[in-house]
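Repro:
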Amino acid sequence: MLKLLFRIFFFLALALIAGEIYLRYQYGFLSAPLYVADPDFEYIYAPNQDVTRFGNRIRTNEYSMRSEPVRSTDTTVILLVGDSVVLGGSLTDNDSLASTMLEKRLTRTLEAPVRVLNIAAGSWGPDNVAAYLTKFGLFNADLICLVASSHDAYDNMIHENIVGIDPNLPTEQYDWALVELWERYIYPRYIKGYTDGSIYFAPRTAPGQVGAIHKSGVEFNPGFAQLAAIARQAGIPFFIVLHPEISEIEFGNYNGEGREIIQFAERDSIRLIRELDWGTTVNYYRENDVVHYNTQGQIFLANKLYPIFLDYLKSGN
């Protein structure tokens, strides 16, 4: 009996060690991109990171952008701003971001350096973006493009103390990959919801069902008007791309919150492009997700924005 227990313990320990090694080297556990809190815009990726997570390289510059370092010689600059749709997160390699592809393509076309700076964070609303630009400036920008979704209409900053507390906003790496797997993925996704009724992430709904992301703000997000004012004061163009959720693609139109954003843009004479008019499909979205692009979606966004950006840069307005 003692020998059997020893064998069970031995194989269990061996399995745990193998699992720990596999998670670290195959999936990049203990190499999550870290966050920093900010009193003005809540939180953002920590600056100057270079990690590999789920096979994707995540790099940030000195301003926490998923872009190469800002240079004093940058004279043609576009700000591509928004939330996790723009950011890409750990499931998108830096080279697969729309911002990276646009920067390279525009540079080749114009035969001069063009920067497309990726300024975004998960669950940011337009007010987070406006606060960031108010704090750090516009980096000599020639154009600001905001990618927003319908739920951003009421995704207002509340300045909760969540950085380093929410497992999805870590400030330091875990000591053990198996602990990270449990605390960040298994427990919140598959167990926590059954005990407190919470939802870890918005899953894609089954065919025939309509699902959407809803935020709890009580007033229309002031960041839309703030960004328009920032651009107007700087004398540069500003426009919005309204990115649909899966449910809106299936329905063929934006929901009530999306229509509020459209009405705001029309009222304030702000250019707004409805991504639904581009013919986007659910094939450009990640599995088990209602809003985020997969790699093909990032390519789709880059291809659609390229002629628009090029036209602005060539016309100078």
